[in-house]
């Protein structure tokens, strides 16, 4: 299960739309590493050079942290919630490397390079084979 859903959020979903803030809070509580990583990368991007197109993590997370990243970024709903909350476009390689791009950089040469087959091949490591 990806999220620990509170009964009140479940009731919201059963009768209509889910409040975006409530959903984001559920993501933050259920997937704290993934949420905090996206939050940190978005802050790094925002506080840096305005010409900088993206920020990414370069360290390998633990197995549990990788699991959170997989659950967060494999779900369109969770991924979209994170993108809207932090005003970024997410990109994902393997189970450990996440990048946040400025929305206007989506589709740029830098973005296309990060999500390319070449980048995927170059970002391989035996330690991440089974993640």
From TrEMBL:
Source species, domain of life: Bacteria
* Cross-referenced NCBIfam families: SCO5389_fam (NF040488)
The name this protein goes by in its record: SCO5389 family protein
> Which species?
Catenulispora subtropica
